[in-house]
């Protein structure tokens, strides 16, 4: 935790890298109405026999992710089951925002339908929602247990949502075809990726009255030029953009929408879901905290929802003028205890109404984007991991101990590290935390989330089952 004030030399070309997704592990999101077989498909594609445990630190999962490797391609597959749940045809407002956030995160979408049950109003509803995205979509007609059922899948063409692939998770039909298409679409979406504009999207979240609007106005005053951007077609919050230090900042703020909410009961729930969508769109999240108020459940829930999306985040502790002469270091320590999900996130103490110390928000945002795109030399990463394990080996279980054979950084944005080990079960949540803390202190991404996977060292896949694909699965995601 630090109060970062100094301007750093910043290479704006890095924004081009960090703003794009091409260096991240491609995200495949499974969507569909309840009971079509999303979870079955997820387990089948990722070769999991049972349900998957929640990532450490989270409650009942709204979505669960697992990484797979197909030939040389890494893919992260997410079952967005929880957010598609609900009775009847209506999608609740909070799930509606969560579905938008999931679509925002995805590089390729698997839209699952049930070939036996046929088209339902709920499929239509989700289909309409997917019409607004340009992301590649594969329509997966599940429960085609026999080839005769495949003909029924043509009815889903009405949805007009991508190529239809007939599969059966229970009868193990057409898995290889779906996998091949998935990899093809992923590679195509990477190749077609437009170079992103040299701009940085800041999402400002926080409870009402924390001072978001005031901060935005103060930030705009720092900019060379500023203009208001009209809301997007699906009701995005009002954006403002300005240029500072040669970088175009685009600010996403949910405060106006929140003010428009009539029912205060709903405000909390809906605004949290809206914030999730805002977070999904952002390059960097600014979480505003009112220094004069305590940390409430709202802040805790917000921090968790930022952490599960692995977004770079800074805490802006506002109204600090009213807290003087308190020590900011003491406050930072207390904050870390109360919001333990992102111990690495930097703090900036501001008095937005007086325009004091708001410039560091823009400087720290640039630093975070820079850190997020860092790639570490292989030898250095391995040296640090080996030293960490030697200094504090994992606990012995049944006279055996965990061993890490190799560490590989497979992606940036977020920095994503795979540890090849003898058995992931030897490394519990505390040990993940220890390794992550070591990486945060010793590698050039101290203030951004790092994704860590543990993988049992490769076991060859029997060639008879699927000769053309070579695949490997990775351990559950550890929340950094
Ligand atoms: N006949 C048949 N049933 C399936 C298939 N895949 C899933 N199911 C069943 O459909 C039901 C709902 O599956 P689930 O994966 O929980 O659906 P979700 O709600 O979309 O995640 C379960 O009873 C599954 O056993 C399939 O390929 N064929
Ligand atoms: Mg399910």
What does this structure look like?
- Mean pLDDT is 79; it is low at 1-22, 49-60, 231-236, 256-267, 459-468 and 475-480.
- Helix content is 33%, strand content 21%.
- Helix 1 packs across helix 12, helix 9 (264-281) packs parallel to helix 10 (297-308) and helix 13 packs across helix 14.
- The chain contains 14 helices and 17 strands.
- Strand 14 (404-411) and strand 15 (416-421) form a beta hairpin.
- It has 3 domains: 13-17 and 196-372, Rossmann fold (3-Layer(aba) Sandwich); 21-191, 3-Layer(aba) Sandwich (Rossmann fold), CATH 3.40.50; 378-411 and 414-473, K homology (KH) domain (GMP Synthetase, Chain A, domain 3).
- The strands form 3 sheets. Strands 6-5-4-1-3-2-17 form a 7-stranded mixed beta sheet, with helices on both faces. Strands 8-9-10-7-11-12-13 form a 7-stranded mixed beta sheet, with helices on both faces.
- It is α/β, with parallel strands linked by helices.
- Bound molecules: guanosine-5'-diphosphate (GDP) and magnesium ion (MG).
- Guanosine-5'-diphosphate binds next to helix 2.
């Amino acid at each position: 935790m630090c109060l970062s004030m100094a301007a750093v030399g910043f290479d704006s070309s890095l924004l081009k890298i960090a703003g794009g997704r091409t260096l991240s592990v491609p995200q495949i999101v499974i969507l569909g109405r309840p009971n079509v077989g999303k979870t079955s498909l997820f387990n089948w594609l990722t070769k999991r026999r049972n349900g998957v445990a929640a990532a450490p630190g989270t409650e009942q999962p709204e979505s669960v992710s697992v990484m797979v490797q197909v030939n040389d391609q890494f893919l992260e597959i997410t079952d967005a089951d929880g957010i598609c749940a609900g009775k009847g045809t209506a999608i609740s407002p909070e799930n509606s925002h969560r579905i938008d956030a999931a679509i925002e995160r995805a590089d390729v979408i698997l839209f699952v339908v049930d070939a036996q049950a046929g088209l339902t109003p709920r499929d239509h509803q989700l289909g309409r929602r997917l019409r607004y995205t340009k992301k590649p979509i594969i329509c997966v007609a599940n429960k085609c247990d026999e080839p005769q059922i495949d003909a029924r899948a043509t009815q889903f063409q009405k949805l007009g949502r991508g190529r239809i692939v007939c599969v059966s998770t229970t009868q193990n039909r057409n898995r290889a075809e779906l996998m091949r298409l998935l990899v093809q679409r992923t590679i195509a979406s990477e190749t077609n990726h437009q170079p992103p504009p040299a701009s940085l999207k800041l999402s400002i979240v926080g409870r009402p009255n924390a001072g978001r609007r005031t901060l935005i106005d103060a930030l705009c005053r720092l900019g060379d030029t500023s203009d208001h951007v009209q809301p997007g077609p699906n009701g995005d919050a009002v954006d403002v953009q300005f240029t500072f230090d040669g970088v175009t900042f685009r600010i996403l703020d949910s405060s106006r929408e929140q003010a428009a909410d009539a029912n205060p009961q709903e405000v909390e729930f809906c605004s949290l879901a809206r914030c999730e969508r805002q977070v999904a769109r952002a390059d960097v999240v600014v979480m505003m905290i009112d220094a004069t108020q305590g940390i409430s459940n709202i802040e805790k829930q917000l921090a968790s929802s930022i952490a599960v999306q692995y977004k770079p985040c800074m805490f802006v502790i506002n109204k600090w003028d009213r807290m003087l002469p308190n020590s900011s270091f003491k406050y930072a320590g207390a904050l870390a205890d109360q919001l333990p999900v992102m111990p690495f996130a930097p703090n900036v103490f501001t008095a937005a109404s007086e325009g004091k110390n708001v410039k560091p928000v823009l400087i720290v945002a640039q630093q975070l984007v820079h850190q997020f795109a860092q790639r570490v030399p292989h030898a250095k990463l391995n040296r640090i991991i080996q030293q960490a394990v030697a200094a504090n080996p994992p606990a012995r279980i049944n006279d055996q101990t965990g061993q890490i054979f190799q560490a590989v950084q497979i992606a940036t944005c977020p920095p994503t590290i795979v540890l090849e080990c003898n058995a992931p079960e030897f490394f519990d949540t505390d040990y993940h935390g220890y390794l992550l803390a070591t990486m945060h202190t010793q590698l050039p991404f101290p203030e951004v989330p790092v994704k860590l996977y543990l993988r049992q060292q490769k076991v060859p896949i029997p060639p008879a089952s699927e000769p053309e694909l070579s695949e490997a699965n990775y351990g559950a995601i550890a929340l950094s």
